[in-house]
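[09:14] KT: can someone run the structure on this one? pasting the chain below
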Amino acid sequence: MAKDIGIDLGTANVLINVKGKGIVLNEPSVVAIDTHTGKVLAVGTEAYKMVGRTPGNIRSIRPLKDGVIADFDITEAMLEYFINKLNVKGVFSKPNILICAPTNITDIEQKAIIQAAEKSGGRHVYLEFEPKVAAVGAGLDIFQPQGNMVIDIGGGTSDIAVLSLGEIVTSRSLRLAGDKMDASIAAYVKNKHKLIIGEHTAEQIKIKIGAVYEADEKETIEVRGRDIATGLPREVSVTSVEVAEALHETMMAIIEGAKGVLEKTPPELSADIIDRGIMLTGGGALLKGISQLFAAELKVPVLLADDPLDAVALGTGVLLDNIEHHRQY
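[09:31] RB: done, structure tokens below
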């Protein structure tokens, strides 16, 4: 008998929740291929280790960009690899799949996600929007007649939504999230320290000393890269204050997006949000001081989910129990 699965198909990571078992897979959304033969050489963690370190005939590809499929065949190969790895298919049956997507994607982009899941081994494929699933995974009861607001800051998109009675009332999806933050950090280090660093290094800076509010000048990290002038390897020290400066523009853009959603929210639901606060989920929610920054700018209490990285995947596990109520394609 096949086991139903929920997939958080993220730009940065793929998480899979198997019904009855919980989250059993969390790997980077990266595939390494041989450009000469087109053969897939590695998927997930193994492929991620190769990013920026491959010879000319090997490419490490992120098949998702800004929360949507940029390379259909590679996405399909990646999903198929992960699903086969979990051994969730029955002898004569395939699993039902609940898969998540950003709120503002087009019908064509939705169909691409559905088709990739079907071709990778799904029987019936159901689509739900990320902020709704993240809210459920964070423990919010979105099925009551009351307003709940969630901001899910992932790798490719930041999804902002107000929910009531199990549905999205108003929402916005911004293609500004973890990847944009990494690029901003790399650009800042290049401009200020005249050092070129890779995306992997920029991500490590963000994870280790990333802060957006009341950053500590004493918190530093040693960073290695290539000197712009000499082309030789060099090491510099980057502070948490510098990272906050690099991330400021992206943070303000997400805050403006949240203000736009709040402005479109019906007054009764706005009153509920003042009482209940805004829930932050996604990897971006782990940045130091982010809840304080959002609370200061939005004038509303802001809460951090207990497990922000896993919120969407945890939400798929809850929703799998009532899978027939979801949108089927």
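[09:33] KT: thanks! Residues 2 and 90 are 4 Å apart (CA to CA).
[09:34] RB: yep, looked fine to me
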